[in-house]
């Protein structure tokens, strides 16, 4: 079957759906305004047209995708209705898709072909989604850029000289380029939220433990999930985040026998009713110009809508958890979350040997983490749970916390080794400074350590024409609340913007 041409009458229906939400695409399919077969071919045509440059979709299975589209078309004709019936989606390469390789960008796993879908992918299929392919990641999912020896480099649709982020970088690029309306990602250090910020889309990091990671990652065959890590959706609308989250719940076959998660409704249904704390400066640092722009734009929009906005200086002592003390704990648990951590570099080993016993800095925590004794991990875990309870008390007074996602918009590709020694230019009031790779994760780690839900949402463009975004952090297991704030802001001010040259019908 050939893709519809730009002058084909079908294009009059298909082009408006290019950047539509998954909900809108599903409705168009249910209404019979477009067929599942034509919508898939439209998606494949855009990938063929643009992905030579972007390299976002790195694993394809057109035969099975076309068969699934035909089945969806027949089901729709019979009157079946499911949330994603006939809607094309892609998923992050780290999720098993039956018949496709899961390598996490590692040549050692380049032949690791999955026999069955991961639980999250199976949930999307059950809802009727047509799996188009898999999107690129960094090696081992451990970078803010998406490149590796297996699949190569993924570029940002807003500027091919810049990264779309990592580790769900291919996911965010595929959404921004109009390939699909919904993506599946994972997040332990901002891997959903930072790519969303870099490309101007939406992303949701669910509460820890809410969505099963079964069938994701390499090597295959693991039963336990990596500590801190979560699975969640990326989309071009906040509404699609909630749609996907509902599909991903209660998929683990063991726990589903007795336990079911039923998320509480969003706390507020109008912007003016939200109680919001806004933070623009990480303790002990200076805010970058990008962080200032993000928060000034958020505050202006919230206050214009009548939202009660507070700043940390307005709070009574002790209400807000100590972010500076929490970050070394985040690095401790993050660095000790791998059963087989990569070998530390000579430089790192020397720095570790020279650490003073009383050094409790974030850098010291990161150096010690890979060899942390279990008794010390248990102490750190107890502090993590105490922090979650502290946040629970905080959220008696507030509904969400809004912060930047990263200190900069999408930066230029930088593949210098070792990775942890890389620096990136960041603009401050007094000029450009070089910021270390490790110092990009303050905001990303804030909700990860206590396991809180966080929704990244777009705020338009900066003065250089690059997307910027913020994140809304909510109470544990109250994922609908930060998603609701993002959705209401998008309805009031707009959300996703199409990158220049990727408009529907564009041949570039």
TrEMBL record:
**Where is each Amidase domain found?**
38-480
EC assignment = 6.3.5.7
One Pfam family it belongs to: Amidase
Alphabetically, the GO molecular function entries are: glutaminyl-tRNA synthase (glutamine-hydrolyzing) activity
Judging by the UniProt lineage, the source's domain of life is Bacteria
Which keywords label this protein? Ligase
Q: What protein is this chain from?
A: Glutamyl-tRNA(Gln) amidotransferase subunit A
Naturally occurring in which organism (per UniProt):
Paraburkholderia nemoris
């Amino acid at each position: 079957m050939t893709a519809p041409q730009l002058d084909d009458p079908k294009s009059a229906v298909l082009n408006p759906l290019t950047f539509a939400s998954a909900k809108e695409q599903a409705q168009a399919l249910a209404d019979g305004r477009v067929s599942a077969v034509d919508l898939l071919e439209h998606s494949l045509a855009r990938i063929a047209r643009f992905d030579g440059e972007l390299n976002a979709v790195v694993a394809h299975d057109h035969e099975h995708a076309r068969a699934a589209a035909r089945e969806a078309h027949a089901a729709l004709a019979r009157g079946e209705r499911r949330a994603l019936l006939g809607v094309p989606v892609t998923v992050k390469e780290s999720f098993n898709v039956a018949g496709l390789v899961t390598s996490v960008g590692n040549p050692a796993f380049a032949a690791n072909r999955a026999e069955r879908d991961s639980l999250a992918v199976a949930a999307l299929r059950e809802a009727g989604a047509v799996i188009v392919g898999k999107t690129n990641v960094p090696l081992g999912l451990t970078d803010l850029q998406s490149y590796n020896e297996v699949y190569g480099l993924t570029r940002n649709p807003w500027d091919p000289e810049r990264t779309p982020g990592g580790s769900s970088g291919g996911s965010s690029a595929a959404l921004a380029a109009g390939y699909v309306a919904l993506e599946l990602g994972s997040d332990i250090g901002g891997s959903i939220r930072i790519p969303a910020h870099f490309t101007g889309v939406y992303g949701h990091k669910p509460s820890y433990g809410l969505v099963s990671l079964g069938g994701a990652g390499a090597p295959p065959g693991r039963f336990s999930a990596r500590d801190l890590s979560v699975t969640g959706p990326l989309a071009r609308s906040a509404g699609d985040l909630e749609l996907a989250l509902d599909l991903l719940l209660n998929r683990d076959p063991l726990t589903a026998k007795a336990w079911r998660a039923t998320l509480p409704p969003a706390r507020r249904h109008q912007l003016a009713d939200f109680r919001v704390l806004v933070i623009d400066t990480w303790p002990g640092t200076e805010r970058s110009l990008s962080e200032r722009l993000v928060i000034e734009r958020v505050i202006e929009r919230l206050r214009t809508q009548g939202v009660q906005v507070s700043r940390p200086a307005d709070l009574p002592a002790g209400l807000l958890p100590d972010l500076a003390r929490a970050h070394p704990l985040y690095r401790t648990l993050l660095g000790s979350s791998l059963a087989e951590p990569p070998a530390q570099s000579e430089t790192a080993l020397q720095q570790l040997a020279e650490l003073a016993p009383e050094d409790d800095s974030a850098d010291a925590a990161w150096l010690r983490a890979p060899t942390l004794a279990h008794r010390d991990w248990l102490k750190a875990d107890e502090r993590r749970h105490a922090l979650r309870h502290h946040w629970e008390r905080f959220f008696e007074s507030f509904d969400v916390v809004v912060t930047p996602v990263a200190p900069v918009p999408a930066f230029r590709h930088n593949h210098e080794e070792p990775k942890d020694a890389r620096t990136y230019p960041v603009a401050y009031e007094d000029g450009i400074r070089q910021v270390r790779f490790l110092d990009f994760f303050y905001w990303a780690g804030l909700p990860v350590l206590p396991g809180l839900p966080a929704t990244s949402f777009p705020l338009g463009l900066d003065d250089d024409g690059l997307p910027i975004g913020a994140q809304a952090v909510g109470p544990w297991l109250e994922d609908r609340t930060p998603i609701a704030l993002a959705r209401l802001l998008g309805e009031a001010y707009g959300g996703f913007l199409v990158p220049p040259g990727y408009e529907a019908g564009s041949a570039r």
